[in-house]
Amino acid sequence: MTHSTKTTAERDIGRCGCYWLLLIFLAFISAGNARATTLEEVETAYAEGRYLEAAQIAEKIGGASGFALAANSLNIHALHYAEKEEQSRLFLHAMGLAERAIEIDPKSLRGRFELVRAMGKYAQGIGRVKAMTEKHAERIQEHLEVALSLDEGFADAHLALGSWHAGLIEAMGSFLAGFLYGANRKDAIFHIERALELNRDDIDIHYGSANGFLALGEQKYRKRAEVLLSRVAELSVQEIYQVDIQEKAVQRINELNSLKEPHNQFHNR
Fold this sequence. Notes:
85% of the residues lie in helices and 0% in strands. By secondary structure, the protein is mainly alpha-helical. α10 packs antiparallel against α11. It starts with 7 loop residues before the first helix and ends with a helix.
């Protein structure tokens, strides 16, 4: 009767194979735990208003979600906390991060929204001529339309597209805005109203909608804007940066009221 036996070398190889499998498994578990910890760090930094730190950690995580979150955090920091002279650099960085998110996942809604948000603010800082040469307006419209084709209920994209129409009309008048870019008042109002319909309790949506209406005509849409701005002050703050939005809303109401005073004084004489 022949017995099958393993040599010492064969047994050692078998043991080594098990050890390697165990090491690989432990490394996989460790990587998963490290990633979870890193995501927790991002969430904590974001919740505590440390947006620049959150952006740095999210960028290290990478992937479509990581880059989109990094762009989001960077945009918030640039909009509400950064010094004016560093905003352009931050918006450029946010644009790059959002573009990486879209390259990885063309269906990344957050990636497309953060890209157009950064691009719009960057374009405002470089001047109209350069912005037109670099075709930022066309690119913004394209990305927003793609986002809405992927999700018609994306309130942020509706507001951004409505603001795109309103901003161009404010900057160059209805005729030129329509002739050069197809921007028009009807679409501006439709998308702004749609954003409000989709998200009735969001501070960002209400504040952005108020500014969109004012861009279309301060006299014509003042009352509508004042209602929205007043609502901003009443809504619950969900993120720390929204405190800054509430303060800006109160300031904007005061500015609008100050514009009424000369008119009222004239009629009270």
